[in-house]
What we know:
214 residues; alpha/beta; Rossmann fold; seven-stranded mixed sheet; disordered N terminus
Amino acid sequence: xxxxxxxxxxxxxxxxxxESIGNADSLLDVGCGEQSPLFFLKNRVRxxxxxxxFQKSLEISRKKNIHDDYLCCYILGIKNEFEKNSFNCVVxxxxxxxxxxxxxxxxxxQMEFISSDKVIIFTPNGFLPQAEHSDNIMQKHIxxxxxxxxxxxxxxxxxxxxxxxxxGELAIPKFQPKKLWxxxxxxxxxxxxxxxxxxxxxxxxxxxxxxxxx
Length: 214
């Protein structure tokens, strides 16, 4: 999870995410939390469903009307809840790093089973320490995911949120004054966008139709 302040700093992420989702009519938001990044997008998907294992987060999200429907369940149980190819797009935004590595691979497999067109994963570039917070033990980071790993799984990888060494836990600048370093981080975004191995976070997009072949 990243902080939701500094909206200008985050605009690149939101615009890249919205472009990646494209014209999907249906979307499953896995591990949606109380404030999904989808809340900040300009265009809303026609029908979206939020899934999370923390009921309190779902209640907050529902009040904000972020999704059309909600389901409280363990996210590794989604394959039992939704049919194959039942959503155009399936996303997991700041989620996979909260799972042990083997469970993360299992989640990716389940997301690809449910998606007919596109799977999108947003995660730190490598392991980023983060403790539990907001009375939610699920916020602790357990695993890290590299650019090469995601590419090996068939994902296009986009670098997000600037040069990795500048930011720390919750995407807060490491150095003082923080506002200055936030600006410097933002200015480095054009460099890391196409060099994701240098980026703080990575947006990973898989075209399921392309991966199926002819």
